[in-house]
Amino acid sequence: MGRYILKRLWHAVYVMVGISMISFFFIHLSGDPVMLMLPADASHQEIEELRERLGFNDPIPVQYLRFASNAVRGDFGESLYYHVSAMELILERLPASLELAVAAMVIALSVAVPIGIVSAVRRNSLLDMGSMLGALLGLSMPHFWLGIMLILLFSVKLGWLPTSGRGSWAHLVMPSLALGMGLMAMFARLTRSVMLEVLGQDYVRTARAKGLKERLVIGKHALKNALIPLVTVAGMQFGFLIGGTVIIETVFAWPGVGRLVVQAIFNRDYPLVQACVLVLAVIFVVVNLLVDLLYVHLDPQISYLEEK
Amino acid sequence: MNSANATFPTAFTEEIQPRLRLLWETTREVARRPSALVGGILLLAIVLTSLSFPLFYGVDPLEQDLLARLQPPAWEEGGSWEHPLGTDNLGRDILARILHGSRVSLTVGLSAVLVAELLGIVLGLISGYYGGRLDSVIMRIADVFMAYPFMLLTISVIAVLGSSLFNLILVLGISDWVTYARTIRGSVLSLKEKEFVEASRAVGTPNRVILLRHILPNVISPLLVLGTLRVANIIIWESGLSFLGMGAPPPTPTWGRMLAEGRVYITDAWWLVTFPGLAIMLTILSINLLGDGLRDALDPRLRNI
Fold first, then answer.
1. Which stretches make up the ABC transmembrane type-1 domain (chain B) (predicted)?
2. Of B292, B235, B272, B267, nearest to B46 (Cα)?
3. ipTM of the shown complex
4. Which of A59, A87, B170, B215 is the most exposed place for a label (fewest CB within 10 A)?
5. Which chain B residue's Cα is nearest to A36?
6. Which of A151-165, A293-307, B199-213 has the lowest mean pLDDT?
7. Within 10 Å of residue A69's Cβ, how many Cβ atoms?
8. Domain B33-298 classified CATH 1.10.3720.10?
9. Cβ neighbours of residue B261 under 8 Å, at least 6 residues apart?
10. Domains and CATH numbers, chain A
11. Who contacts A87 (Cβ-Cβ below 8 Å, separation ≥6)?
12. Which of A11, A26, A239 sits opposite B143 (nearest CB)?
């Protein structure tokens, strides 16, 4: 098990190095990054000054090493637009994004898992067909459009919920529902298919043959085994949530990192874009690492098989 | 048998005919599932409409009519059949814009998936067949791509490169190769140990020929399923990028941009944000229905993707 954990840690480290390289180089894609950051009518002197100040006159490998060593210490330089440390801006906005992502995940799981279980247990019933049709619709709906439709219904027509901003729980309802809907649909389908597989296994038949109550058979014997793929997929989908916050935060004017990155792109604030992208990617890698470790805990076979 | 020396009739009966029969059987198998049939017909209708609408609905999507601003759909009070789905804030016809937008979405969706599949096929075949250091380098790069939130990767690259239809297809395609490469690599790993591959290696068939003629045809069906389902995702991402102002540049009408522009008028004109979204949803729904059917018919192992 120790060896497996070490292997996963090594994996996380090289992935982060790779991500830092992509984040560093994307800004060089267009040729001269300084030209991207300055207005078109900038003077030659202004261009040279900024180039010198940001160290763009050094060889690329030197620039990368400087970027990476600063990034490890949490220093991504100064935002060109706000003139404060990029990291400071991100840390200020991060709680809002995490709140939204966690709320979306909680809503998705708490609705989808019971639906998936009931659908599997009452396979081919009207309830099963209805929920799977709902899941299919949920998967087919772009989350930002769902967000707009929720605003149309609950804010414009009914006047129940605020259209934008952050503050009370009422502000959180629509953005997290819109962000979580796709996941909810996916988890419901996954739970159903995993449960169907598990319910056909010998140990479930044995549990039933022993005369255990159906609730125990499903809740204890079946669900526990069905949870393993669900945890993995939920972890992997956290990246989807982080990507999704970029648009949903724009729809609901939610003051998080996603909106910050979109604004930074329009402000040509590339150091800030770079910092946001890297921080979000690191969060994603760390969450995946944690999920993998949890996975080993849930299913001890994994580390054994990996070591073999 | 070397097909280069074979005469046409033999080549047809030996190589093409069984594949045609397989294709026909697969189509029948897919069509036997009602949901796949509905999805397939719906998608066909959408594609045909997108190709042929100038024949029956020639309204210019860019023509502004400031006297007919924010006109509701025909069945609402104040609407007219001149603009069946109403008009936007500049008096442009919503239906015409949706129809034109379908071309952008379908083009980007299909082309980006083709780019991704091509990259994934090449890298997956090489990685799985040759193994060794090349395999680990490709798979490590794949790990990095997997860990990079897709949306962030695409928006940051588009932000730097600028948004054009070509850049959009390229970026979405390049960001999405990993799933294909991994699927192919997995299949190749098991296929290369099979007798028919060993036999052809033993008679001295070059690796390139083994890969393209013996291995590739056997990994096509999971690719087809995956590709179909990914078209749906790419269309959602394309409309998302358009929504953020990073899609195909104006004045091209796109579904995402229509939603972004309509959002400002949400209190007065519900139709501006409702119809483009419905168009996206119907397209995605048809692709998902067809994709699910294809998956069940071709490769039940992929059921959880």
1. 102-291
2. B235
3. 0.84
4. A59
5. B160
6. A293-307
7. 10
8. yes
9. B88, B89, B272
10. 93-271 (1.10.3720.10)
11. A74, A75, A76, A275, A279
12. A11
